[in-house]
Amino acid sequence: MKDKIDIIEVKTDEHFQKAFEIRKKVFVEEQNVPAENEIDAIDSEAIHILAFHGDEAAGVARIFSRKENPSEAWIGRVAVLKKFRKMGLGKLILKRCLVIIESKKCFNAIRLHSQKYIAPLYIQFGFVPIGEPFFEEGIEHLDMIKRVS
To answer: From CA 115, how far away is CA 119, in angstroms rounded?
Structure first.
């Protein structure tokens, strides 16, 4: 039997801990992002998404807006644990983020900084690259945007 996949909005300390553990494994341990840069001030304001594969926490994302442009929503820190990759969890997490953002009806655009290798996933969902590639934490990224109607 196929394991059930649940994607939830994080509300409990236990789930926050699971989300941050995933981010630590993916960004700090796998991608060598400095640990002190992984958790930031945005985390206290963001909506956090946690994906479960069966009973195991498997992936995360966060949604936030920036004070300098509150009409744009941002999706960030999208990560899936290695053993759960290639199962479509990233797409499901992204779909959930988009539903949450679009339900708010106060944003005219959604932005993200995609690691270059995964940009085709976001393009499938209507995101387009803007500007030139850049490096963030030593990893090549693209600034991407999706207009909300």
So the answer is: 7
Q: Count H helices, E strands: the chain?
A: 4, 7
Task: Give strand ranges (E) for the chain.
Answer: 5-9, 47-53, 56-66, 69-80, 109-115, 128-136, 139-147
Q: Rounded to the nearest 5°, which phi and psi values hold at 68?
A: -70, -15
Domains of the chain, first to last: 5-147 (3.40.630.30)
How many Å apart are CA 8 and CA 23, to the nearest integer? Answer: 16
pLDDT tens digits along 90-148: 999 999 999 999 998 889 999 999 999 999 999 999 999 999 999 999 999 999 999 99
Phi, psi of 54 (to 5 degrees): 65, -125
For the chain, what percent of residues have pLDDT higher than 70? 99
Q: What are phi and psi of 27, to 5 degrees?
A: -80, -45
Q: Quick check: 149 pLDDT over 80?
A: no
